[in-house]
Design a protein that fits this description.
heterodimer, A: 258 residues, alpha+beta, DNA Polymerase III, Chain A, domain 2, Proliferating Cell Nuclear Antigen, 2 domains, five-stranded antiparallel sheet, 4 helices, globular, B: 360 residues, hypothetical protein yedk fold, nine-stranded mixed sheet, 28% strand, disordered C terminus, peptidase activity (chain B)
């Protein structure tokens, strides 16, 4: 039996909103520690790893491991019906064929209950190699989102160049080019505004702007995004949850690609 | 329905194939009419297996050369004859009146009712049609539009021996001033699909298992039509068949090759990996591992365990208790990137294809 109560439905709303455009069908693996999802987008360039630990819930119990096969679009439709401030409880039996979602209005006596049919999704489980990163950038998520959006207006590729204390986002398109440079910066009053760059080796990688624009749909989840990079390896973009994370592994573009 | 099947066995090897299932082959005719094919459609020639009682032979056979050899009047002869698929009733006057697409299947219900096409043949010329397996198309509705995708499946015996479908055949003679054409043709009997295959199509050919009394009764040329024969045409619900998605190439009857009866690669991990794919950094584990071994705490919440969402995953709504609750025994099979890159597909454990069986 799974019973997970969120103090506010907004957390799951934001998570689903961040994922639904990249992956259509996901297995949600529920264990006593929380709920996790690993999924790859159709083009197999972006890999999403979600972990909502029990600590992100107000109450959480899961007696035995359950796999919930969910269609993201359907889940999103139901989630959107609840108010962001509602208390949201997820309920599933041990061998479920449906996931129940219960929204409770905290101010009024209003309870909305939905049942979502589960899918049997044929998925392999994949293990990503442990990766070592040469550069780590912590920056405001909203700033990163703006850069990705702005640069996409110029080109379908975004180059990320990291040198000693600065990160350069560079975009070269048919009609022009543009770049944004940000430097390490510490705001003691508003720590979420800080930029921190940790570097072992300089980085010069190019990514698909389309995927970055899918990733930044997670911006409402966290004030900061952590970007971890290493030459010729997937980059890791991480948004922290109250307890857990939403991570995106994005394969870099190679010059000889079409 | 059964409108396409695979019978890529050389005529010379047929007696051996039949022998494996303890079926005698006394005669073989017209094997030059067809090439072994993985993609046989109506109007093409393919082997058909039937019994001939000797008395019947004398009246019926166009060539009586074997009659003298058969001293024992009660014995029946087992014959393989290559025939045209799509039965031409013997009373058809002109070959131009005939379309194989009208009679490539014989509905068990129409046979029972004594439809004029089947009334004569149901009594005297019953046969079985040997094959490696047959194709059936699943009509899959798009979730977003009214479009319907047709996905071909191949249905075969799990032990890969020949599968036999109940059939009816006839012999028609067309003559003009100069020549006389004799055409042997056959039809495959279909009926409502058994529960296990309803999800795929509501009709299914009638499978007869060699060695059963139904098989022998259906082929008994001396047994006139009665209700007993109808009992041979029950939906086939034994669990010795298997099925899987195959290449859409089979849709065109001109396509040919063994790949038509091989599992279509459908998982993202089965597809070739491009240089820019995240799959280059991922190791594949099978689903069974995750379910059977109740992942450890570390694994369940470990960010390094990543699962793929397939591009066109096979999925269905769950209506029954999940089978995953039952522990599965196989040990996890691991696949490394190098294996993935080498394109070897055989190490991937394909999930039980029977899973979608209760789609309503």
């Amino acid at each position: 039996m799974l019973e997970g109560k969120f103090d506010e439905a907004s957390l799951l709303k934001k998570v689903i909103d961040a994922m639904k455009d990249s992956v259509k069908l996901c297995n949600f693996n529920c264990t006593e520690n929380g709920i996790s999802v690993q999924a790859i987008d159709d083009s197999r360039v972006l890999l999403i790893s979600l972990l909502i630990e029990a600590g992100s819930f107000e109450d959480y119990r899961c007696d035995r491991n359950i796999v919930l096969g969910l269609e993201m679009e359907s889940l999103n439709k139901i989630i959107k019906n609840g108010n962001a401030s509602d208390m949201l409880t997820l309920v599933a039996e041990d061998s479920p064929d449906a996931l129940n979602l219960i929204f409770e209005d905290k101010r009024r006596d209003r309870i909305a209950e939905y049942s979502l049919k589960l899918m049997d999704i044929d998925q392999d489980f994949l293990k990503i190699e442990d990766m070592k990163f040469d550069a780590v950038v912590n920056m405001p998520s909203a700033e990163f989102a703006k850069i990705c959006r702005d640069m996409k207006t110029l080109s379908e590729s975004l180059q990320i160049i990291i040198t000693k204390d600065s990160v350069k986002f560079n975009s070269e398109g048919d009609f022009g080019s543009g770049s944004v440079v940000i430097k390490s910066f510490t705001d003691l009053e508003k720590t979420e505004e800080s930029v921190r760059i940790t570097l072992e080796k300089p980085i010069n990688l190019t990514f698909g702007a389309k995927y970055l624009n899918d990733i930044i749909k997670s911006t409402p989840l966290a004030s900061q995004v952590t970007i971890k990079l290493c030459d010729k390896q997937p980059a890791l973009f991480e948004y922290q949850l109250p307890s857990g994370y939403l991570r995106f592994y994005l394969a870099p573009k190679f010059e000889d690609e079409e | 329905m059964c409108g396409r099947y695979a019978m890529a066995v050389d005529p010379n090897d047929l007696p051996q194939y039949f022998g494996e299932q303890n079926l005698a082959v006394d005669e073989m005719h017209d094997s030059e009419m067809a090439q072994p094919r993985f993609n046989i459609g109506p109007a093409q020639y393919a082997p058909v297996y039937y019994s001939h009682s000797n008395c019947q032979r004398r009246n019926d056979s166009p060539d009586n050369k074997f009659v003298e050899d058969e001293a024992d009047g009660d014995a029946s002869t087992r014959v393989i004859r290559y025939m045209k698929w799509g039965m031409i009733p013997f009373w058809t006057k002109r070959i131009s009146d005939y379309s194989p697409f009208k009679t490539f299947n014989a509905k068990a219900e129409s046979i029972k009712d004594g439809h004029r096409v089947w009334k004569m043949v149901r009594s005297r010329t019953r046969c079985v049609v040997p094959m490696l397996g047959y194709y059936e198309w699943l009509n899959k509705k798009s979730e977003t539009s009214k479009a319907i995708t047709k996905i071909p499946y191949f249905i075969k015996r799990k032990d890969s021996k020949l599968m036999f479908l109940a059939g009816l055949w006839d012999k028609s003679i067309f003559s003009d001033e100069e020549t006389t054409h004799v055409i042997y043709s056959f039809s495959i009997v279909t009926g409502p699909a058994p529960q296990q295959l309803e999800w795929l199509h509501h009709r299914m050919p009638r499978v007869l298992e060699p060695g059963t009394k139904e098989f022998d009764l259906w082929l008994d040329p001396k047994h006139d039509w009665d209700d007993k024969l109808m009992s041979c045409l029950q939906p086939y619900d034994k669990d010795d068949l298997e099925w899987f998605e195959v290449s859409r190439d089979v849709g065109n009857v001109r396509n040919e090759g063994e790949h038509l009866i091989q599992r279509a690669p459908k998982r993202p991990t089965d597809r070739p990996i491009k240089k820019g794919s995240i799959m280059n950094w991922v190791k594949v584990k099978t689903k069974e591992h995750h379910i059977s071994e109740e992942p450890s705490e570390e694994e369940a919440c470990d960010s390094s365990i990543l699962s793929a969402g397939p591009e066109s995953p096979s999925h269905r709504f769950l209506h029954t208790p999940r089978e995953s609750a039952t522990p599965l025994t196989p040990s996890p099979q691991k696949r490394t990137i190098s294996e993935l890159l080498s394109g070897s597909h055989d190490k991937v454990k394909v999930k039980d294809e029977k899973k979608p069986k209760t789609e309503v």
